[in-house]
Amino acid sequence: MAFIDLQKDLPGIRGPMAFRPETAKPLNELAEVLLHDDNNTLSRGEREMIGAYVSSQNDCFYCQNVHGALAQHYFQCDIPFIDAIKKDYQSAPISDKLKALLAIAGSVQKGGKYVTPEQVEHARTFGATDREIHDTVLIAAAFCMFNRYVDGLNTRAPQDRQLYVDRAKIRAEEGYADLNVYK
Amino acid sequence: MPHIDVDRNLPGIRALMAFRPETAAPMGELANVLLRDDEGLSMAERELIAAHVSYLNDCFYCHQSHGAIACEYLDGNKDLVEQVKKDYNSAPVSDKLKALLSIAGSVQKGGKYVTPEQVERAKTLGASDRDVHDTVLIAAVFCMFNRYVDGLAATTPTDLSTYPPRAKQVATNGYGAHIFSAKQTVV
User: Fold this and answer.
1) Binding-face residues of A in 115-174 toward B, CB within 8 A
2) Contact B116 A3 (CB under 8 A)
3) I need a surface site. Which of A37, B38, B71, B123 has the fewest CB within 10 A?
4) Is B33 within the bounds of a domain?
């Protein structure tokens, strides 16, 4: 049970977002720019995958399934493919550039100072730009926030993973900016 | 040296925010809503939670910046701010704030470290649901800001005299567009 009275029985982050709409607004606007905005040279799938990977490293069931399902939607793949990336991205059939960015994201998850100049250089050799490195670090950092928000208030996470897959399409279409937490 | 090419004349998170204004806008708004609010928790208490979490994350820029802002709200009581950062249990602050700082410390480790007992204790000492919510989110938000600043190796002024003038500006004007323009020497 959630640690505070969230009034409505909404799953995951939607509970605290309904509880405090004033903070929900900038949180969703940040998610929109980082994950959904098409003015970005990283694909939506790559950005959602970084979010899902960091959430899995933080052991946040709700976030890794929401954002894993979105990555799955954009990659046109299945759950095992996403799970394989989360478990061992180095062996997964994804680009070297995304692998290098996931390494940076994994360091950010442990703490900002774990990111090394070598990791950044490595990502650059595969074509990563300053802005892509910036966005990777900020997406990873933002999920270290979202994951703690969701689990720190002990919110409810539906256990049926297919539910997340079913919801991903609508989120992909609507984005995060005007997210209606009650829908 | 920062990992990416940002304005060297801007310290800490301000250089990163100038690099990418599209993400800076919602982050600035989030800081304003969470930290510039006196309902339940005072602005000083909110900044103390931020400074404590940033200290635990070993983010020098953030714990100096938010410690200095807390100091502005606390009539310049720097000793109190330093004590809360390092050992709040022995600091002369309310039991309610101590209970909330304990929750914030758990959030810093990870969301699942927060226990029902910690929350119950805070509520017994008068914390409302909104106070608990804001404490968890402030702690979580600083786990983001700290990683953003250090993850990109943003420039951190080591001259401690540069923080109070900036803190005064935030105490007066809040978190907003002025953070890109106001001068702070990068030493």
Assistant:
1) 115, 117, 120, 130-131, 133-135, 137-138, 140-142, 144-154
2) yes
3) B38
4) no
- Consecutive sets of 10 residues in chain B, 187 residues long: mean pLDDT of each? 94 95 96 96 98 98 98 97 98 98 98 98 98 98 98 96 94 76 54
Give CA–CA dist B138/B126, Å, rounded.
Answer: 19
| Residue of chain B whose Cα is closest to the Cα of A115 | B151
Residues 74 to 93 of A: which have CB under 8 A from any B CB?
Answer: none
A51-162 is classed in which CATH architecture?
Answer: Up-down Bundle (1.20)
Of B33, B119, B139, the CB nearest to A148: B139
What distances in angstroms separate CA B33 from CA A12, B28, B66, B127, one per listed residue?
Answer: 21, 9, 15, 19
**Residue percentage of chain A with pLDDT more than 90:** 94
Q: Give me the number of domains chain B comprises.
A: 1
Report which DSSP code applies to A41: S
Q: What sections of A58-116 are H helices per DSSP?
A: 61-75, 79-88, 96-110
The rounded distance, in Å, linking the Cα atoms of A160 and A48 is 20
Cα dist. A153→A3, A4, A7, A30, B135 in Å?
5, 7, 13, 21, 10
Distance from CA of B75 to the nearest CA of A (A): 28
Residue B18 lies in a domain: no
What CATH code is carried by the domain that includes residue B144?
1.20.1290.10
Give the mutation candidate from B1, B3, B6, B63 for the A interface (greatest A CB count, under 10 A). B3
Residue B115 lies in a domain: yes
Question: Looking at residue A32, what DSSP letter applies?
Answer: I
Q: Angle at which helices B95-109 and A130-152 pack, to 10 degrees? A: 130
CA nearest A129: which of A97, A170, A87?
A: A97
Q: Select the residue of A137, A152, A154 nearest B152 (Cβ to Cβ).
A: A137
CA distance linking residue B48 with residue B66, whole number of Å: 7
